[in-house]
Amino acid sequence: MTQIHIKIMKPKTGGLDPVTGTLRFRPVRRHFDAAKNLIIAASFDADLSEDSELTVDLLPTTPAFVWQVVELADSPQAYTRYVEVPNSQTKVEYADLVEVDPATFVPKDMAGSQLLKVRRAATQSEAEALSAQYPDVLVFFDETATTMKAAMAMSTLESITAEAQTNAALAKSAMLSAQSSADSATATQSDLNILASNANTLAASVANDSQTVADTANAVAAKGESAIATIDSTVQAVKDKAESASAVLPSTGTPEGTTEEPDTDTDTTVEPKAKKAAVKGA
Questions:
Q1: pLDDT tens for each residue of 186-215
Q2: Where are the alpha helices (DSSP H) in the chain?
Q3: More confident residue, 36 or 144
Q4: Which of 143, 165, 186 delimits the end of a domain?
Q5: Would you state the pLDDT for residue 213?
Q6: What range does the domain containing 120 cover?
Q7: Same domain, 79 and 95
Q8: Cβ pair 28, 68 in contact under 8 A
């Protein structure tokens, strides 16, 4: 059931006034409902309240029937509408109901428009051909063929989806591999930079050590030359002093080991010594 809210007013000077009266509701045409009950075209009445309002519950309409509503029935102001009632869980305003032609049930705002034409086809390809041939005609074709075509299309979509997922996984794996390779290359470059730095430090240390050794060797050589020069000078000084001493010393006789006969002038000198020897012996 759908709740329909109705409010009817009448004009007066400076505004509106409520009205009183009865509304009569009747389904147009007998029909069967969803429970397979036969619904006859019988009417029922409902009165407006003092505020000129009314809420009624009506069966939603189908292609088999519409509702006839007689406003202010049995009065000079009576007016008849034929309306569709939607299947709604919320209250619907009477003014929003679609008014239809009671003979065709076609909405009044579509009066004069072309009615829908329908054709049927056995296959989708035939339906496409008919649709192209009759652009203003709605073409239906076999549901089984449609289902099979839809299943094939769905299978194709699933295959494409699976392939796309596989490609995405491969791309992700390749990206991770590339990232790993990049990280390894970065680490290798860092190691090479460290080795190069160590090599430069070692080379600088070797160069410093070589310079130190060279400087030490030069210093030792310089000191050696100075010592040699000092020794040479000392030796020369000793030689010079020796020569000077030799030149100053007096002659003391025949050197030891000679057998030369003594000179006659020295006999007087030897004799006293011999005498002294003899005296000493006695």
A1: 777 777 788 778 767 876 776 676 677 567
A2: 124-133, 143-248, 267-281
A3: 36
A4: 186
A5: 59
A6: 116-186
A7: yes
A8: yes
Rounded Cα distance, 122 and 99, in Å? 37
Q: How far apart are CA 265 and CA 135, in angstroms?
A: 178
Buried b (16+ CB within 10 A) or exposed e, 146-177: eeeeeeeeeeeeeeeeeeeeeeeeeeeeeeee
d(CA 201, CA 194): 10
> How many Å apart are CA 76 and CA 70, to the nearest integer?
12
Domain tally, the chain: 2
SS3 74: coil
**Quick check: is 278 in a domain?**
no
Contact (Cβ atoms closer than 8 angstroms) between residue 107 and residue 66: no
Check: pTM over 0.70? Answer yes or no.
Answer: no
Own/partner pairs for 36-40, CB < 8 Å, 24+ apart?
39/65
Concatenate the DSSP letters of all residues of 96-122 into one string. Answer: GSEEB-TTT--BGGGTTSPPPEEEEES
pLDDT tens per residue across span 241-268: 777 777 765 555 555 554 555 454 544 4
CATH number, residue 35: 2.60.40
Backbone φ and ψ for 122, nearest 5 degrees, come out as -85, -35
* Highest mean pLDDT of the ranges 40-49, 101-110, 124-133, 172-181: 40-49
Return all residues near 28 (Cβ < 8 A) that are at least 6 apart. 41, 65, 66, 67, 68, 82, 102
Residue 143, in any domain of the structure = yes
The Cα 106–Cα 97 span in angstroms is: 13
Residue 27, beta-bridge partner list: 67
Which pLDDT does position 279 carry in this prediction?
47
Give me the count of residues in the chain. Answer: 282
